[in-house]
Specification:
The structure is a homotetramer. Chain A has 2 domains: 7-56, Vcp-like ATPase, Chain A, domain 2, CATH 3.10.330; 63-249, 3-Layer(aba) Sandwich (Rossmann fold). The first copy, chain A, is built from 7 helices and 17 strands. The first copy, chain A, has helices spanning 36-39, 58-65, 75-84, 102-111, 124-137, 172-177, 192-201; strands at 7-12, 15-20, 26-29, 32-35, 46-48, 51-54, 92-96, 116-121, 143-147, 160-163, 184-189, 206-220, 227-228, 231-233, 238-244, 247-249, 258-259. In chain A, the strands form 4 sheets. Chain A has an 8-stranded mixed β-sheet. Chain A starts with 6 loop residues before the first strand and ends with a strand. The interface between A and C is medium-sized, with 18 and 18 residues.
Chain lengths: 261, 261, 261, 261
């Protein structure tokens, strides 16, 4: 049942809008006027003329709710990152570069009520915007938003970390110290030059390095004329993943040969 | 700390192996012999010669653990599906076509300890294989595996559903009845002909239909010679998503105009 | 040397303009005014402020010269088609569906002065537009443009054919009769449904059938920040190629076992 | 008509073989034995059991004929390069890095009987292999193969050039001097690091710089089960194109302000 003040996604053809169902208000679009008084009290999934009203998914919130003051991590990448970093109920997760807080919402959900996400943002303007977005859209009280520079941040240890910085290689040793042994870490960078810099920095103290690009292609949904859409997103960023090497055993036979990597 | 009988992923160059750290045993690979007696008691993330030993992620389990008697839903698709269907702690999820149970593991994790996944498999052989895989790798006790035909399955309602069948269009009305109003449903099919059939069947009773293809590209991880890998996976399947239309209001002004779609 | 009335491509940042260097005129763009009187008499490849002036390539003519009244075959596809059909100096080429004549220009060039291209267009409006484009941009006098329906066209035999029609399967037998034994034939269609129909029709009388899609990705050209462009063309069309089976020999030993396919 | 000693491509399912139809010999494959004595005298495009025999296209020659001692420029890239460089009947074309001569065959065809291709190879072993391949497969006598280093080569001017070297940026100024004003030049390099180096070197004396990647996707050709192939080529190389800036006019009004770039 759609209740007053619920968040809802209104779908009109291929456009979506995230709206609060405030009773005195209405939605004005190409499909006409949709008075919210007519919407409240109906079941979720009701079709009103050309408008369909659904409960918003996390993708709807990220795409149509979050106020963007930075480039966000788009769902195609965020969905992958979250599982690739093996985040599950109870995980302690570090995010460096909160940006607008879009990925933070997803990390929070994945870490669950028993988990904890620490998200660090250096720019005051972005920090405040992320704060607003989290206040509005966070489902669980498991996020600590910190206004700090990555280099000054000293907490830990974390089960996983995701880094969205311009020059992550400058912080690599520091970040490594915040992770549990074997913990996965991820990065997103837009250019190949940055990928090379990261790869260089990951040679010390990390293993299982991967560089991945996710291309996302939508199709037009007409059964008799199935075809990809004419235009697609050509690039968001390169994803880099690695895992922390905690110790190095040179001599397998020795039982006390653990040295720092 | 790696304890005896832990599952671990052993990484050698770009190959990975999922192994139980059984004390009397050892791993024999191109990097030499790795006796598990030397591994137990070390921290996670220890490097032994050319071998790195990490705690397995869910991707490691799906790729190197699950015994496959069917084509599995690959991580690139599974990770996306899981969030696209908006599965979160507490979700009640329906999976039709358990296959080898790979996606089931991920759905279980996403639904969390408060959630519930019902996974239905018709083929006895696959059902038994999925049962074995779940017994071995499931982290939470929130999955009910059912040996049944989709058409005979009558539970519900579910917050989300994922369907991996050859002819899902034959079951569309039945599946729709098992979903909550506005609930997302997803499908994976390998051919464009199947996509067209699904799109046709989704015209009644569903909205917000999307067809998506995820292309996944790996790069070689040499900083000074960054380049994509020579070969890549060209296709796994087309993903189709929709949401259940629960009711149709013809006249926006009327307050009692709800009709079944 | 750029001479008066030459066609030239004017490049300003990432935009290109095909212009006739008419002496009294000038080019007005974001880089300021470029008087053509200053251009004529200079060498090709002269940089005037932010404008570069080059001799137009066939890609420039197709992209910025040809007046489009139809969707054209884009260079990424046209360049491939031309060689895939093995067109060389002296080839006799059939094109069904001249459209705006963009591909015709390329086929003409590939067939060379000794070759011949017959291009057939049914729609009078497109025929006339193609005529204008060919009059303006054709380099060789080796094209016959015909205003006719594919079904009524009876010439031949051709060394190669390219078909850009909505329902090519309706003409398959007729088209086959116009080709030399073993000759390649190509098609472009936008939807998967059309691909399936073509494949079905090609089962009789054709061999070596291939379906191909060419994805074209541009990068931003900043050395220190190399990255793909944000948006790309997601789809133009599916390319289908086959070769004519001329005869079938059932019994390899027999010397007179040739039967029509 | 297939004559004795003709080159032919034998197609068996999705495999192709380039063969000389030598009368005493035969083709042995999974489709059985095909005695060439039965083939000679038949029309092109004859189907013999499961074998189809066609006249070889230039793609067949490049893929199944050319003996490779180097990585070749694959047809998907070669076909594009050839037109992008605007090569037509009469063009004078420079190729630095003949490799195995695969692209040379295509450039030769595009330049036509009136054109000329100069192809330069430094490595003696590759030079000799290219020589053999050209002797076997060249259609026109318009190619000069040179055993020389790019830096020592002093001919010109050329209408277009293609460079397949490991470090093309070392030769950029030298190469520029060999080109006509406004002439297009192309490069292929496998890594992003090389692309960045080239872009840096192209900043002086070149305009209209483009970086392009061509992804090529094949589909299985079953009408009722249309789908992309499971595996595809993930990467061959990045293509870079530019055009020579011949002169720079600082002051548009002045008529004698041409300075070298």
């Amino acid at each position: 049942m759609i209740r007053p003040d619920d968040l809802a996604v209104v779908v009109y053809k291929e456009k979506k809008y995230l709206k609060k169902i405030e009773e005195g208000k209405s939605f004005h679009g190409k499909g006409g006027i949709l008075p919210f008084a007519s919407v409240a009290g109906r079941p979720w999934g009701t079709r009103f003329g050309e408008y369909d009203v659904f409960p918003p998914t996390i993708e709807d919130v990220i795409m149509y709710g979050v106020r963007r003051e930075t480039q966000i991590v788009f769902p195609k990448d965020a969905f992958f990152i979250c599982h690739k970093l093996d985040i599950k109920c109870g995980s302690r997760v570090l995010e460096i570069g909160s940006g607008s807080g879009a990925l933070t919402l997803l990390l929070s959900r994945a870490a669950g009520p028993e988990g904890h996400v620490v998200s660090v943002e250096k720019e005051e303007r972005h920090y405040k915007n992320a704060q607003r977005n989290l206040a509005k859209y966070l489902e669980l009280q498991n996020v600590t938003l910190r206004h700090a520079d990555a280099a000054d941040f000293e907490d830990g240890p974390f089960d996983a970390a995701f880094i969205d910085l311009r020059e992550p290689w400058l912080y690599m040793e520091h970040l490594r110290a915040l992770l549990c042994g074997g913990a996965p870490i991820g990065f997103i960078v837009p250019t190949t030059n940055q990928v090379s810099e990261c790869l260089q920095a990951l040679r010390q103290g990390f293993g299982d390095v991967e560089v991945i690009e996710i291309l996302f292609r939508r199709y037009k949904t007409v059964a008799a004329r199935l075809r990809p859409e004419d235009r697609m997103v050509g690039h968001t960023g390169y994803l880099i993943f690695a895992r922390k090497i905690e110790a190095v055993v040179e001599e397998l036979r020795a039982t006390d040969g653990v040295t720092p990597p």
